[in-house]
Structure formats: C-alpha cells, structure tokens
Amino acid sequence: MTKKDLFRLIIKIFGLYSVITIIFSVFPSNVGLVISQIDFVGIVWIVFSLIAIILFFTLLIYKPDKIISWLKLDKGFDEDKIEFQNFNNSNILKLAIIVIGGIILIQNIPAFLSHTLFAFKSSAGNGLNDNMFKFGLRDYIHWTTSFLNIILGYLMLTNYSYVSKLFKDKDKNNE
After folding, report:
1. What digits encode the pLDDT tens for the residues 23-51?
2. Angstrom distance (rounded) from CA 109 to CA 151
3. Other CB atoms closer than 10 Å to residue 71's CB: what's the count?
4. Measured at the alpha carbon of residue 37, what is the angle toward residues 56 and 45, in degrees to the nearest 5?
5. Residue 12: CB partners within 8 Å, gap ≥ 6?
6. Distance (Å, rounded) from C-alpha 161 to C-alpha 151?
7. Are 71 and 105 in contact (CB under 8 A)?
8. DSSP letters of 71-117?
9. Exposure pattern of 78-88 as b/e (b: 16+ CB <10 Å)?
C-alpha cells in the first residue's frame, strides 16, 4: 500500500464520518433553529449550508487526491510504500497527528458556521425578534474556540512532520 492510498482511505473515512455526523445531528438542529424564525437570511443560510455540505463531502469522498496534494500529506515520509510490518514509531506518530488534526477540523467547522449565523442574526436584529437571538459573551467564546480549533486542525494537517519532530525531540529529552 502506498502512502497516497492510505491517505485516500483515511480522507474517505473522514468524509463518511462527517456525512453521518452532519446529517443526524448538526443539520437538523440548525434547520430547527432557522425554521423557528423564517426570513430571508434563514432561507439563504439553509441553501448555503446545503450547497457547502454537498461540495465538502463531494470533495472528501470523490476527490481525495486534490486534498492530499493541497495539504501535501504525501510529503515528509521516508518511503513511498507503507508496509505495516515496517511501520516505525515516527510514521505512526505522523499518521496519528494527521488523524487528530482532521477530526478537530471536521468537528469544529459546523459549530463555527452555526455561531457565525447566530452572530449575524443577532447583529442584524430588526426589533421583532431581538430577544430570540441574543449573542452573549458565552456565544462569542464558543465562536472563538471553534475558530481556533479550525486553525489548529489545519495547522496539524499541514505541519504534521514538524509536530512529530517536536514530540520525538521531547521523547528523546525525557529518556
């Protein structure tokens, strides 16, 4: 198995996991909140989120090679072929960092988009529903946290080789 094949498999698994998570938890809760106050922004939000979800999952499931080349996931390994019996600690650590970064990224994108919608609705209140969409300090903290997690996940995906070197250096210092 080549490293590109392994990353294709992992990205497709992420795509399927994300589809299941969004279809059964994130999307229904957002649709319920938007339907409770139907207006132009809500309709645009539903259409935009459906298009974004479809494009995102099409990219994850049907175009993993573009993601691999965009994030340069196949760089930083010693060999092109991955043989699991010769999978050393360094490669396992790199793979774990990629998986964790992907999970962080995928789990926080829906929360960030939801908080963005609610912040917009709160700031664009028209006086009729001002009490319904109050965006308080706690909401800003969750919004900021999800944004920072998206950045962290992206950085872990793109700099996995550097992060693994940091962990290996710390491990050598502890011995």
Report:
1. 766 666 666 666 666 677 777 877 887 78
2. 10
3. 19
4. 20
5. 60, 61, 64
6. 17
7. no
8. HTTTSS-S-SB--GGG--HHHHHHHHHHHHHHHHHHHHHHHHHHHHH
9. eeeebeeeeee
Mean pLDDT across 142-150: 87
- 169: containing domain: 3-174
Domain count, the chain: 1
Rounded Cα–Cα distance for residues 77 and 48 (Å): 38
Instruction: Round to whole Å and give the CA distance between 142 and 115.
Output: 8
Eight-state DSSP code of residue 24: I
CA neighbours within 13 Å on the CB side: how many for 156? 21
SS3 category, 41: helix
In sequence order, what DSSP letters do the residues of 132-175 get, joined into one string? TT---HHHHHHHHHHHHHHHHHHHHHHSHHHHHHHHHHHHHHH-
The radius of gyration computed from the CA coordinates of the chain, to the nearest angstrom, equals: 20
